[in-house]
Design brief:
The chain has a two-stranded antiparallel sheet with strand order 1-2. The radius of gyration is 24 Å and the shape is rod-shaped. About 0% of the residues are buried. It is of the alpha+beta class. It starts with a strand and ends with a helix. About 65% of the residues lie in helices and about 10% in strands.
């Protein structure tokens, strides 16, 4: 059994636990293969984590671009409403937060 944690924007705390396991009814086989299984699980885990870090970084960058776009739209709308005095609008302070 090999446990690892991968980053996930949708998961609680932005991390999701995973477990890799080799299951066999033959205990001797598992014990005989244990060093190789352990090494292969570690290699697979490192590959998963490396890919996950890249994917997570891309997701974060996309979310940041989305937030920047939303902030710009809200700021633009606020300025238009201020100029037209058409009624309620968001404060600049609220947009900054």
């Amino acid at each position: 059994v090999h446990h690892l944690t991968l980053y996930d924007l949708e998961a609680r705390g932005f991390v999701r636990p995973f477990c890799l396991a080799y299951v066999s009814a033959d205990e001797r086989k598992v014990m005989r293969l244990f060093p190789e299984l352990s090494a292969q699980f570690s290699a697979a885990s490192e590959a998963l984590k490396a890919g996950n870090r890249r994917a997570f970084a891309r997701e974060l960058e996309k979310k940041l671009r989305d937030l920047d776009y939303t902030r710009a739209v809200l700021h633009r709308e606020t300025e238009l409403q201020k100029r037209s005095r058409a009624g309620g609008f968001y404060s600049t302070r609220a947009i900054e937060k």
